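[User] Could I get a sequence and structure tokens?

[Assistant]
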Amino acid sequence: MGAGFRAFLVPLLVPESPMRGRTFYTETLRLLESLRAADGDDADFVLDCGGRATASEAASLADIFERFHLLWLDEPTAEINYGAFAKIADENVTPVGTGRHFHSNVRFQDLLRQDAIDVLRPDLCRLGVSEMRKGAALAEVYYVAMAPYHRGGLIATAAALHAAASIPNFFVQETPRPVDERDLRMRRELLGADIETPTDGFLKLPEGPGLGITLNPDAVAKYEVKS
């Protein structure tokens, strides 16, 4: 919050045991409630299941979090069962998001046709800008929002921001939040500017030719991976 962010992705803490009783659900809700209490009413949250929940567990989580008003439930299950996604979406008002592991828009289209998804999560580094924009056009027909996935580097951040600005059904852009000082130093040296720190929840669109950024060639040479 102090860095200017207003929406946060929280990873689901999945027990190692295959038996996940009531405590699993109550502790997950308690965690999110404590975060909201700390951050106030200005913060929004996404619960990231990371594809580690079963379809029934994801449905239960979506039901429990209805009154909490998550932005969405992310990657609820790894099971590529569109019927399961549709069931979760039909039985609860908690939005469902998925797609960061998809390599083409074909699977997006299948989910959209079954009305099984509320938020599309394409990975720019997997699909590229053009394919992501095509996916956004498909989603717009079904009134589905776009929240692109991104955990790459600075160049990808700049590309993601420009792509997001060109999508009419854009909702929110995930951006990396490095905590290691070495990573932060490398990013500062590569660009000489900070394009990943928001102001009141918004990132500024880089200006200028191309992606609007200029890389420091000395920093590129310094951090080049040599094989």
User: Anything to note?
Assistant: The first strand starts at residue 7 and ends at 11.
